[in-house]
Every structure is written in C-alpha cells, then in structure tokens.
Amino acid sequence: MNELKRALFSVFPGDRVSDDPAILAGYSADSATLPGSATAPSYVVLPRSTDEIVHLVQIADRARIPLVPMSRGSNIAGMSVPVQGGIVVDCRMMDRILDVNTESGYALIEPGVTLHQLSSALLKKRFFCHLPTATGGSSALANYMMRPSGNYSARWDPDPLLSLEVVTPGQGVVRTGSACFENVGWRARYQCLPDLTGLFANSFGTLGVVTKGSVKIFDRGETDKVLLVTFDKFSKAAEYMKLIVRRQLAESVTFWSWGWNLFHEMTLSKETQIPEAMLKEDQKNPPPGVPFGIASARLSGYKDVVKVQEERCIKIARELGGEHLAEDEARKIHPGCYNYLNSYFGKGVHIKPGEESQIRAGLHLSGCLVTVEPANVAKLEAYMWDLAQREFEPPYFFRALPYNHAREFFFAFVVYVQGSLEERREYLTHIKGIYHQLYTDLRNKFGAVMFRFRKYPEFLSYTGGYGDLLKDIKKSVDPHNIMNPGMLIF
Description:
Layout: H1 2-11, E1 17-18, H2 21-25, E2 43-45, H3 50-63, E3 67-70, E4 87-90, E5 97-101, E6 106-109, H4 115-124, E7 127-129, H5 140-145, E8 161-168, E9 172-175, H6 197-200, E10 209-219, E11 223-231, H7 234-246, E12 252-257, H8 258-269, E13 293-301, H9 303-319, E14 323-325, H10 327-333, H11 335-347, E15 362-364, E16 368-372, H12 374-391, E17 396-403, E18 408-418, H13 425-446, E19 449-450, H14 465-477
Parallel strand pairs: 2-4, 3-4
Antiparallel strand pairs: 1-2, 5-6, 6-10, 7-10, 8-9, 8-10, 11-13, 11-14, 12-13, 12-17, 15-18, 16-18, 16-19, 17-18
Helix pairs in contact: 1-3, 7-12, 8-11, 10-11, 12-13
C-alpha cells in the first residue's frame, strides 16, 4: 500500500488523490446500498486527461487492485460502488465538450459532461441529443454507455454511440469506430472492420475506462411540438405508440402512468412529502379526475408537416379510445407534468441539476427495467400490477416506450420507497429478492430481457457461446480482472 500511495502521488497532485476516510465514505455507497454493506475504497483519484488515466490503470494493474470508474449523477443502482475496495476513478473533472460537429452530426465529449450541459449547448445550435430519464446533472456518456432509456429512441436509431476512446489494462488505449484510424475523425460507429464500440457499451466499467466518445446529435427542424394524449388502458396506448412511430408521425413517444405524472408534479413544486393521492391503496386506478396515463410524443420538422402529423396522431388516438390533452389544459391541470414533458420532449433540454432533489426525500429505486416485443408488452404490464399489489407498498408506477421503429418496447416498473435506508432495510431486502427472481420469470414468460445488468452472476451463463466468447475477450482486455469486479458480470 505504501508503494501504491507513492505511485499515485507521483502522477496526481495532492488535491486530486485522497485516502481521507471522510472523503472515502462518500464513495462507499449510493442510494441502492443497504446499511452495513458499504465498502470504502482505499483511494479516490480525480484525473483530468487520458494520459493520467493511462498511468492510473497501469498502477492499479501492477498492484492487482480493483479500479472502479465513475462519472457523475444520481447513481442509484450500485454500479460505481467499490464493493471490493480498491481505487475509485472519478471522472467528473473531465467535463469538456471537445467538438460539436453539426456538419457530420456528432458531438465529441468527455465522461464528466452532464446531460444538461450537452443539451443546452446543442440547443444554441438548433440541435438535440438523446435524453435518458436520468437527472440533468448526470453524465451523458455514462448513460449512453448503458443504452438510453428515454427520448429519441423510437423513430431514430436507438443507439447514440459512435466512436469511443477507452483505456484498458491489457491493450492500452483503444479507439473504436472511425476514430481507430488517425485523422479520419469520430463520425462513424462502423467502418470496414468489426465493431468494437458495442463491446464496451453495457460493460459497466469492467473492460476499461472510457475517456471520450462521439455521440449522435440531430437537427431540430423548423418547429417542435409536444403532443399529449390520455389513455385509460395501457394496451390501447401501446398500439397508439407503435402506430405513430412506424408511420413516421412522431420522433419519439413515452407513456407515463398516473403515479409517474404526479411525481412530475413534485418536481415543479419541490415538495418533500409525497402527495396523499400517490399513496392510495389501489395503485392501478387513478384518483378521480386524473387520467390513467399520458402518452407524450415529440413532433418536429416543417410547420405544415407537423400540423398534419399532429392531426393524424390525434385521429389514431381517438380511434383507440384516447383523448387529446390540449396544451392550455395541460398547463392548468398538470403544470408540473407539462413543465417536465415540454422541457424533455419539446426543448430537448434536461432539467437542471438539483431540480429533482425531492427524490432524496425517499429512495427512488430503479425498479424492474426490461425490453420486450410489442405483442407481449400489455401482458407484461398486467403481470406487474398483480405482482405489485401482492408484494409492494404504494406508491409504484411505470412508463413504457417503443424502441427502434417499435421492434421492441422498453418497460420500467418503479417502486418509490419512503424513509431512510436503515428504517426500510427489511422492505428493501424483500424488493431486491423479488427482482432477482423476477428477471428470470419475465424472460421465461414474456421473452423480456433485463435492460441493464443488475449484478446477477448467473446471468451470463444463460447466453451460451456468447458468454464464453465474452469471457475470453475479458481475459485479453483485463487479464487480472481489476476493472470494476464488483459488477459480477464475469
């Protein structure tokens, strides 16, 4: 450990490397870590460049000590918690937007760039980017590396990543996509050789430290329109979303159940207490005067074209039993919900850091996140309601959206737990146990696959030869298994 300390201080100034117990404690847990299970790292390091990370990875590999990369954000799923100790590499100081190339349609960013920072910069150039539902203060690149779960994933290509720069223990600095060729640029995911950008996506820091990446950006068009439609039945809403995406009427659309819409109201009010309406025993049916759910769609392009798209969407919705929620009515009846959805879908700008601070009044679990074919998404919703009524306490709610020309649906069922981790430890342990079995049940019953890896060591064994090949790649890229081993993928 003395040699490790000398090596770290030979590369990093004293204000960017620490073994102070008070600082280490802040990195030992997140909101998904139950009391008594946190593990502090030995050191926290804040690099500012790729060269510094190269040195850091070499130091950690020589010492055979775990290295856990993190960027910034709410961190609610334990993915950057050093459960086996080691060094946390906090990339928040690598926060530069290196290039916004509107000609080629990409932005080159470092891992510390936030969603609010990126989307605000693009708004000035009349461009927008993929927006997951993470908070505005979260890392754009880190969320894109985990596949976005939000806006612009329906009509547009759902994968925002193009080229990456990654520092690995076994292969050093690796550049993927068009960036693998010097002086070619960062414009493309694919070139004349096999794709490696996808190898590092969804690897959760187990293969290397991503130091920069190019991501897709999109022209805003002449005008933007947020179209809100209410539904009293999810199966009809799912059909509506599928149709308006496949018929090129909307760029994106998401359905939010009534509990999630009331949660948006909390965002505007800054309330720290959950409204009584959200705590009603019957969570499947909304309070009087509140629609079961709202489908929020983004339309953009030339004004006359958007007008026709809006009319056709409303016609399809009404044929399926939905009803148009006019902008003035939404502002009046659901101001917080409208504020969030208009910023998210209309302006294409994530709300600023801190505006979801009321989440900290409770514990906003990431819940059960899966993807499923369109034919099974309504069956999945019904199954989750039955499960929730047996196993969960109010409030709980869901959202769903079509991906990739509606070839599949993303479905997220979330439980909002009030109280401290210590007070609710038993209940949280109960939920975690249910989720563990749930992912297996949903895959067997509905062909629904875990959207993001949730530390289930047996999961890779279900994939046959794919898993065997991935393990061989891991041995080449990270031969001593120092990269975030606590994720338990390998």
